[in-house]
Amino acid sequence: MTHPITRGPRDRFAVATPEVRRAAVSMAQAARAVARIHPHDDLDAVTQALPGSRSAEAAAALAAVWEESFANWTKATSAHARALRDGADDYDTAEDQVVVALDDRVPQWPVPRHHQQIGAW
Asked: Is the dihedral of CA 18, 22, 23, 25 positive or negative?
């Protein structure tokens, strides 16, 4: 994977929004995978095998902590994935608006992705 922020002409930076979007998709997939994990399922076996023991209490407490931690991580990761996607969209929109605003005053480099999709070029 290339770094999503690369040096552009005249030492300016350009954001490779497709890379940012791919990272967002990967993060969203990871969040969905973690959301399907329920550590209490495995730890319940310890609780049932050793009822009333300190080990059973510890396993139940650990399961609760893990469930909460997994849920919090999933929520945060999903939010970060959305923010990456939204940021890439905002960046592309801003770039497209600059091209439109400057119109003929900018060299015609590769056509912005949004304009290709709507046939404006």
From this structure: positive
CA separation for the pair 116, 68 (Å, rounded) = 45
Range of the domain at 44: 5-118
Structure tokens at 84: 């990456």
Helix or strand holding residue 6 (H, E): strand 5-7
pLDDT digits (tens, 9 = 90+) for 4-30: 555 555 556 678 999 999 999 999 999
Radius of gyration of the chain (CA): 24
- Structure tokens of 94? 């801003």
Count of domains forming the chain? 1
